[in-house]
Amino acid sequence: MNAISSYTGETKKVSVLLDAPLGYMSNEEIRNIVVEKANEMFPTPQFLVTPFEDSQMMKQIYREEHNMPTVEYASTFGTALKMADIQAIGQSLDADYVLFIQVSDSGPSYSNSSSWIPFVGSISSSKAKTSVKCDIRIMNISTGKYVAMKQTVKDGADSSSSFMGIGGDQPSFDKAYQEAIERCLYELDIDTSTL
Predict the structure, then answer these.
(1) Nearest 5°: CA angle at 129, between 112 and 33?
(2) 97 strand-pairing partners
(3) Cα separation of 118 and 132, whole Å?
(4) 83 or 183: which leads in pLDDT
């Protein structure tokens, strides 16, 4: 407690940008994990983490103004934020550092199987697979350079069944996304006291 109260240096402002597929962006549990880890990595009073929603809104506005729409899959060509984009968003947020988290996937690949059950009919099942990649980077906004980076890849799968072509859900990779970002965040070990 004394170490915190004796801090007399400058408080540095940190903004968190999460760039991910739309369905993943709305996952409240993931957002909570991201905010919790950011506050842990950048403790007060040395750092002030800006409100997550403010950063996300500024990122959305930047994408709209630069014709970079957010799409269902972050792996879609041409949607990734580049270093200059992250720096510009960080500058508009008046941040010293940006914790940039990019979640992308390989897109789903499918395998199907079906079987005929007497007196029941045809039952089909499909399995969808994807690889989820989570990149975490910390950028010094004044230099536009990354001061730390971490990457994690997690494979995910989802199965669905249908009866005579009726039913069956779209695959959900929420669990793979959550595991990838949790693993990446919890394995992230950066001494931010030197920033």
Answers:
(1) 145
(2) 14, 140
(3) 39
(4) 83
User: In sequence order, what are the residues at sequence separation of 6 or more whose Cβ sits closer than 8 angstroms to the Cβ of residue 39?
Assistant: 49
The DSSP code for 192 is G
Q: Dihedrals φ, ψ of 142, to 5°?
A: -65, -35
- With tokens 């957010």, the residue in question is 70
> Which phi and psi (to 5°) does residue 58 adopt?
-65, -40
Instruction: Return the ∠ at Cα 75 (arms to 82 and 50), rounded to 5°.
Output: 50
135/120 Cα distance (integer angstroms): 47
Q: Which value, in Å, is the radius of gyration of the alpha carbons in the chain? A: 21
Predicted pLDDT at 172? 62
d(CA 120, CA 163): 9
What is the predicted pLDDT for the residue at 189? 75
Residue-by-residue DSSP string for 120-169: TEEEEEEEEEEEEEEEEEEEETTTTEEEEEEEEEEEEEEEEEEETTB---
**Terminus-to-terminus CA distance in the chain, angstroms?**
21
Round the average pLDDT of the chain to a whole number and report it: 77
